[in-house]
Design brief:
14 helices, 361 residues, mainly alpha
C-alpha cells in the first residue's frame, strides 16, 4: 500500500507540473508585433505568388523574439546582433546542404558556439534555439547552388524588418513600462558557459546522427526538439519540457491535421501562421506545453507550406511525431548528463584541462 501511495503522490505531482500555469505580465502588443514580424514577409510572398520566398524571409522575423526589455540603445544592439547571428547560422546551414558529410559537425559547432554566446551574454529564452533551427532548416532546404544569394537575401530582409518592428515597438513599450537594467557581464563562467554548451552541442549532434541513421524524412526537427528540451535550467525543468513537448506535439498534431485538411491557399496560410504566432507568444510564457500545441502546426506550415498538396498530411504528421519523440528523448538523456554531479566532475575535469586557465572562473 505504501508503494501504491507513493506512486499516486508521484502521479499527482507530475500532473500538477503538467497543468500549472505561470503568471505573466506580457501584454498583447508584444505577440502582435511578433506575428507581424513573421507574417508580413509571408503576405509579401503571397502577393507575388512566391510563398516559398515568404517562408524563408519569415524565419528572419524570429529575430524580434530576441528583443530584450532593456533601454532602447541596448535593445537595438542586441536585436541587430541576433539578426546577424540568425543569418550567419542560416548561411552556414545552406552551404552544408551541398556537403552532406558536414551536416553533423557543422550543426554541432553552431549549437556549441551559439549556446556559449547566449549564456555568456545572458540572452533570454528562446536562447540558441532559433539559431540552430535556422541552420538545420537551411541544411535540408532543397535549393540549388546559384540560389544561395537569393535565399540569404530573403532571410536578411526578414531580419531587417524584425529589427524595424522591434524599434517602433520599443518606442511604444518604453513609454508605458520602465526598462530593465542592462545585464552586467562578469568573468567567463567555465561550467555554465563552456562545459554546458559543449554537452548541449554534442547531444544536438548525436540527435542528428540518430535521425540520419533512422533515415527520417525530416531529420532537422530532431536536433531542434533535442535543444528545446536540454536547455532546461534544472533536471526537473528538462523533464517538464520533455513531457510538455511530447504531450503538446501529440495534441498539436491533431490540430495540424485539421489545419491541413482545410482548403488552404497562399493567403490563408499566411494569415493562419500569423494567428498561430500570436497565440504562441501569448501562451509560451504561461504554459509551455499548451504553446507547443500551436507550435506544432506553425512549424509544419513553416517547413512544408510551399509543398502543400504534394505530400499526404498523414505522412507529414507521422514524421513530425517521430522527430519530436526522438529529439526529446535525446534531450532528456543530455539533461541527465548535464545535471549529473558525477558526470560534470569526471568529464568537466578533462575538458577544463584543454581550456586556457585565464579564461575560466
Amino acid at each position: 500500500m505504501m508503494g501504491w501511495g507513493r506512486f499516486q503522490a508521484l502521479l499527482r505531482r507530475e500532473i500538477h507540473h503538467l497543468v500549472t500555469f505561470n503568471a505573466s505580465d506580457r501584454r498583447w502588443p508584444m505577440p502582435f508585433c511578433a506575428a507581424l514580424a513573421m507574417g508580413l514577409p509571408l503576405l509579401v510572398g503571397a502577393w507575388f505568388n512566391r510563398l516559398d520566398y515568404g517562408l524563408v524571409s519569415s524565419m528572419g522575423g524570429l529575430t524580434f523574439l530576441y528583443l530584450p526589455a532593456t533601454p532602447l540603445a541596448h535593445r537595438m544592439v542586441a536585436v541587430m546582433a541576433s539578426a546577424f547571428g540568425l543569418c550567419a547560422c542560416y548561411i552556414l546551414g545552406v552551404m552544408t546542404h551541398f556537403m552532406p558529410l558536414l551536416f553533423v559537425p557543422v550543426l554541432t559547432f553552431i549549437a556549441i558556439v551559439v549556446s556559449m554566446l547566449c549564456r555568456h551574454f545572458a540572452v533570454a529564452p528562446p536562447g540558441s534555439l532559433f539559431f540552430v533551427m535556422a541552420a538545420a532548416i537551411g541544411a535540408y532546404s532543397p535549393i540549388e547552388l546559384l540560389q544561395i544569394p537569393t535565399f540569404v537575401g530573403l532571410i536578411s530582409m526578414g531580419s531587417l524588418l524584425a529589427c524595424l518592428i522591434g524599434f517602433f515597438y520599443s518606442l511604444y513599450t518604453l513609454r508605458v513600462t520602465a526598462p530593465q537594467p542592462v545585464p552586467q557581464l562578469g568573468p567567463l563562467n567555465f561550467d555554465f558557459v563552456v562545459f554546458d554548451s559543449l554537452v548541449i552541442g554534442v547531444f544536438v549532434g548525436i540527435s542528428l546522427v540518430l535521425a540520419e541513421l533512422f533515415q527520417l524524412e525530416r531529420p532537422y526537427w530532431v536536433p531542434v526538439s533535442c535543444l528545446a528540451v536540454i536547455q532546461g535550467a534544472s533536471l526537473r525543468a528538462v523533464w517538464n519540457k520533455q513531457m510538455h513537448r511530447i504531450a503538446g506535439t501529440g495534441i498539436g498534431l491533431v490540430l495540424a491535421w485539421g489545419v491541413l485538411m482545410l482548403p488552404l491557399d497562399r493567403w490563408s496560410v499566411s494569415l493562419m501562421m500569423m494567428a498561430l504566432a500570436f497565440v504562441i507568444e501569448t501562451l509560451i510564457v504561461r504554459h509551455y506545453g499548451l504553446a507547443v500545441v500551436f507550435i506544432t502546426p506553425l512549424t509544419i506550415l513553416l517547413a512544408d507550406a510551399a509543398q502543400l498538396g504534394q505530400t499526404m498530411p498523414s505522412a507529414i504528421l507521422e514524421a513530425r511525431l517521430v522527430d519530436t519523440v526522438l529529439g526529446s528523448l535525446v534531450g532528456l538523456a543530455g539533461g541527465l548528463c548535464l545535471h549529473s554531479p558525477a558526470f560534470r566532475d569526471r568529464v568537466g575535469r578533462q575538458v577544463r584541462r584543454l581550456w586556457p586557465s585565464r579564461s575560466a572562473s
